[in-house]
Amino acid sequence: MLAAQTRIEALLIIRHGEQALLTLIIPLALLIGLSELHIGELPEPRVDSVFPRIMALAVMSTAFTGQAIALGFDRRYGVLKRLSATALPRWTLISGRVLATLVVVALQAVVLGVTALVLGWTPSAVGIAPALLMLVLGTLAFGAAGVLVGGSMRAEIVLAVANAIWFVLLLAGGLALPAADLPGPLGTLAGFLPSGALAEVLDATLTRGALPGLTPVLVLLGWFAACGAAALKTTRLT
């Protein structure tokens, strides 16, 4: 049952045109553009600095924005209410969504990683395993935030709020520009946002071959715990 639910959820994400634009086409275009166009001062090859931030953007797009919007409209059309009345256990429904999101993130990592290699990306081999763990943690943190937004608001409001937060985290969260290049307090703030924290740990593991710092890991764990606890209290089936 879990495998079947995971497959269905993953296919729904992959086949949705708007989701594909948000989760793959935009990150892919930004990866190529920021790597090939000399915007800002970055060491060569530029893709080494760009890839961790774009990978963090891809995770945010899938686990937060995509899941929030999908959950909001599933609630609006009564999908969750109908599924809860079937033989499908609630834990299977939740686990299927989580695993499907991880599957899509894995596909994103493959596509973006291959593209980055073509552009000259030289990742640290010793950092790949820690980076994978950080991708899972980042997916859980953004997923909890997505459930919090998508499970407590009307679908139309979810659509606006999720996209607005996506733009804020893109611009102020150290994704469009490195946190060090952001003006004044924005650079400091970026490190305490889930987008900035995930980009920081991916940069540490993949670019420098170092272990992720304690602070960004705690930031991701904090967002996961806080959003998850709030989502448990506010999420409604309809």
UniProtKB/TrEMBL annotation:
InterPro entries cross-referenced by the UniProt entry: ABC2_TM (IPR013525), Nod_factor_ABC_transporter (IPR051784)
Major subcellular location class: membrane
Residue ranges crossing the lipid bilayer per the database entry: 20-39, 51-73, 94-121, 127-150, 157-177, 210-232
Domain ABC-2 type transporter transmembrane, first and last residues per copy: 9-194
Record key words, sorted: Membrane, Transmembrane, Transmembrane helix
UniProt topology in membrane: Multi-pass membrane protein
Pfam families: ABC2_membrane
Protein origin, superkingdom: Bacteria
Location(s), subcellular: Membrane
Protein known as: ABC transporter permease
Organism: Saccharopolyspora griseoalba
